[in-house]
Write a structure and sequence with these properties.
Layout (H helix, E strand, L loop, with lengths): L1 E5 L5 H4 L4 E3 L3 E5 L2 H5 L3 E6 L5 E7 L5 E7 L8 H21 L5 E6 L8 E6 L5 E6 L2 H5 L1 H12 L4 E3 L3 H6 L7 E4 L7 E4 L3 E6 L4 E2 L5 E2 L1
Parallel strand pairs: 1-4, 9-10
Antiparallel strand pairs: 1-3, 2-6, 4-5, 5-6, 7-8, 8-9, 10-11, 12-13, 13-14, 13-15
Helix pairs in contact: 3-5
Length: 216
């Protein structure tokens, strides 16, 4: 496991609960070279006097060098944590998700808000529809398999698709990929609605077809 030592005086933001660590705050990173080079490697974050601050996902290729998983020293970063975080996020929004129209695009996971920094998940079509995921940071990308397993288990939705936002993933040093992670891919043209409008969207890319927004 990597160890990130924070410069003296730079730990204040972490102590205040800030989940992002920039290169300017880091004094040094100790650990195996292959772990340092791997986006999303788990790291212990400590003060210059070696006091524990957090556990985080380290990415040498990102402007945000590390994203905090937990400020608790007794909380390991493992499959169980990912599954708990996914379950908590979906439970928080379960009522709205189950009551939504079949054509609504409903957010289920919202990154840092849900303790899953860089992960965005939207649902389309309810439990029998599609989960559209964006893995926008090295940490959640490294834990993709248990995250997808938890999404399927908690929603009952068999179709999970990864949407690739190229600029974001390039900035994180992550491979460019889009495609079905489980089940079938969503349609490339679908009607999407909210309380006021309806429009046509390519669910695989997020592209909105021009001149399709109409009042409901």
């Amino acid at each position: 496991m990597l160890i990130i030592t924070i410069k003296q005086g730079k730990e204040k933001s972490l102590l205040a609960g800030q989940p992002w660590i920039y290169a300017s705050a880091i004094e040094k990173v100790d650990g195996k070279p292959q772990e340092k080079a791997k986006p999303g490697s788990t790291a212990i974050v400590q003060t210059s006097s070696r006091q524990f601050l957090a556990r985080a996902a380290y990415n040498a290729k990102s402007q945000i060098r590390a994203r905090v998983w937990s400020f608790r020293e007794d909380e390991p970063i493992d499959h169980a944590l990912m599954k708990r975080r996914v379950k908590a996020a979906i439970d928080k929004r379960a009522a709205g998700w189950r009551q939504a129209e079949a054509t609504a695009l409903v957010p289920l996971v919202l990154g840092e808000e849900d303790g899953l920094p860089g992960l965005l998940v939207d649902s389309y079509g309810g439990p029998s529809g599609y989960l559209i995921c964006r893995f926008q940071a090295g940490g959640v990308d490294a834990w993709k398999v248990p995250i997808v397993q938890a999404l399927i288990a908690e929603t009952g939705c068999p179709n999970v698709y990864e949407r690739c936002e190229e600029l974001v993933r390039k900035g994180e040093g992550l491979p460019l990929f889009s495609g079905a992670l489980a089940g079938d891919a969503p349609p490339d043209r679908a009607e999407v609605t909210d309380a006021r409008q309806r429009w046509q969207m390519d669910l695989r890319t997020g592209f909105e077809y021009p001149k399709t927004r109409q009042p409901r």
